[in-house]
Amino acid sequence: METTVGETFVNALKPLKATEQLDLGCVLRHGAFEVLYENELGITVGKPETALMFFFLRLLARLQSSGTVAAMDIDAYGKAL
């Protein structure tokens, strides 16, 4: 099974303005992804069998960093994926 993140997908993300950027996504049969827009585009991909959990944990981590979710070590749970 192919991953959701191919060259076409990555190239589509590169020219996006800050208000157009896609940060997280989940396609249950193909996987989930998180995009970091820093100096260079960084994409982390979760496997299809753990797509929903990967998406959920990455979403919680982002909400926690913005101060809207109680603190917990989310990355420790994510390492099992």
Distance from N terminus to C terminus (CA atoms, Å) equals 18 Å
Strand composition percent: 15-25%
Strand order of the largest sheet: 1-2-3
Tell me the major beta sheet. Answer: 3 strands, antiparallel
Number of contiguous helices: 3
The proportion of residues forming helix, as a percent range, comes to 25-40%
Low-confidence regions: none
Order of SSEs:
HEEEHH
Mean pLDDT comes to 83
Counting DSSP E segments of at least 2 residues, the number of strands comes to: 3
Query: What is the number of independent domains?
Result: 1
| Envelope shape | globular
Judged by helices, strands and strand pairing, the structural class is: alpha+beta
Rg, rounded, reads: 13 Å
Provide a descriptive summary of the structure in words:
- This protein has 81 residues and is of the alpha+beta class.
- It has one domain.
- Helices cover 33% and strands 21% of the residues.
- It is built from 3 helices and 3 strands; from the N terminus they run αβββαα.
- The chain has helices at residues 7-13, 51-65, 74-78, and strands at 24-27, 31-37, 41-46.
- A 3-stranded antiparallel sheet has the order 1-2-3, with helices on one face.
- A hairpin with a 3-residue loop joins β2 (31-37) and β3 (41-46).
- The longest helix has 15 residues, at 51-65.
- The protein starts with 6 loop residues before the first helix and ends with a helix.
- The model has no long low-confidence stretch (mean pLDDT 83).
